[in-house]
Amino acid sequence: MSDGPYRSLPMSPKWKQAAKRAYLSSFSPSEVSEALQQAAERDCRAELSTGLLRKVTALLIGPAEPGLFFDLPITDLNALHRECASTMEHGFVNNAIEALQGGERGQAALHWAAEASVSDRMLAGCRQIEEHMHREANDYRARSTRARLEEAHGGVDVAGVARMMLGTPDAPARTRTTVYSGLDDGPAL
Fold this sequence. Notes:
Blueprint: H1 13-23, H2 29-47, H3 50-61, H4 72-80, H5 87-101, H6 106-136, H7 139-153, H8 158-166
Helix pairs in contact: 1-2, 2-7, 2-8, 3-4, 3-6, 4-5, 5-6, 6-7, 6-8
């Protein structure tokens, strides 16, 4: 008997936990959201270097008075691609460029890029879980897992994870896993 198809998922333990919670209907949508948020927080800490974050922040915030060359930050951001060490870093730089091209400037551009990067990473993780479930479980369970992941995605504080990623003063504290230790702590009836 298998422990569930989420056991063989080739992802971090946080993503395996999110897959387990989405796969098993005994977990509520808020518990699935909690696991997704923890997985996104873990990926931000593990895949984004502080040096790259500082460079992108400096380019997006820039001087108080913009210079003569309006496209210079975009050119410098394009050059940063050589320094990217992970897919998430590449995505963050691409989102920063897209924010500037979309008309965002300064702090607004930085937050837009960070939120888009967190959202992109969460969607990629959910797609990977769904693909794995289609290979390892029956079609009904795979579709059910996808629906639960989609429902839980709306409960994730993407803006909070982005603020945490950027290290802003108003960033929320890291989410902690709720541990149930007794009969009274179980799911609501």
